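Form P-L/3: holo structure prediction, ligand pyridoxal-5'-phosphate.
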Amino acid sequence: MRILEFFSGNSERAGYKFSPIIERGKLKLDSNENLFLSKKTLTSFISKVSREVDCRLYPDDDIGEVTTLIGRNLGVDRLQIVMGGGGDQLIELLTASLLREGEEIRSIDPTFGMYREVAAQRRLRYKAIRLGIGFSLPIDELLRDAEEGSMLVVCNPNNPTGNSFSKRSLLRLVEEYPGFVLIDEAYVDYGGESLTENTCNYDNLVVLRTFSKAYGLAGLRVGYIVSNKRLAEVIGTKHQSPFPCSRISLGTAKMMLKNQSAVNYTIDVARTERKWMLSQLSALEGVTTFSSDSNFILFDVGRDAVTVKQKLGELGVSVRFVGSVTGYDNCLRATVAPRKMGEFFLKALREVIE
Ligand SMILES: Cc1ncc(COP(=O)(O)O)c(C=O)c1O
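OUTPUT (holo model):
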């Protein structure tokens, strides 16, 4: 069945809460966006913000208002927070401000591809160390021969494996690593332990967060970093541009923070659906699933993953090709979706592999 046909009549008005994200005729399960936030709710938030703010003016006080709310939520001083135009922009900012040409980004393999790309763009060395059995953190290897002029990056939870690492092991890395340690917490609202409250105790710890995932604002481009105050001041005033986010983006981020219960609702439902999707996927013959602390699931299809991805595309579902992950050669990644979309995806997958 064609995707638009499948979802026709399921408008939010008809009691179907979540309108599917369909791009180029395909159900979009490839970028870990928040599919549980109703588009209608978000649109009403953005309209309200656009009526309230005067976009002829630069966003002067807006950043202070957002960092105050974030600081309150996380239990950190607002001066420890630097806002940015999404996680990607902040990754560029951090590498530009903390590393010099020829220095190293060290990370785990596999992980979020942006780190490798930024290293190449900035002429930094990139060293990736394979995750251990059960996607465990290879602590000793990460620490081996590490240099002061380098940055260790760990995504927690990790993309694309979906698992999180213990706070104890991450703090050990922060304490023993001679350079900066960046903990990328893009998905931490879905599981795992945050290190934001520890940032004030370390000179070398930076935590990255984004409004693109649990807060559902991928299209508005808002993110932030948390570090100790001194480091935040240097990065924020000497390296970040004066107005990295628009008034609409900051106003909507503020709105989401003030409606935290709506955000929490989407997180709760995503967790329930993650469990359901995992159980459905693992019941498929030849498919191996991996538990997830994120809003996506990594799974090995047990046959050529390129072909499976392509055939899923022909049936109207877009998932992410991952390939080889420590011992599993045919991995794909799919965003956890509301039940109706999950059913459409699973139906297509069954058709492809059975
Ligand atoms: C681990 C991780 N970090 C950061 C990002 C960047 O997110 P954004 O630039 O939308 O804030 C992503 C996006 O998928 C991600 O998976």
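COMMENT: The first strand starts at residue 22 and ends at 23.
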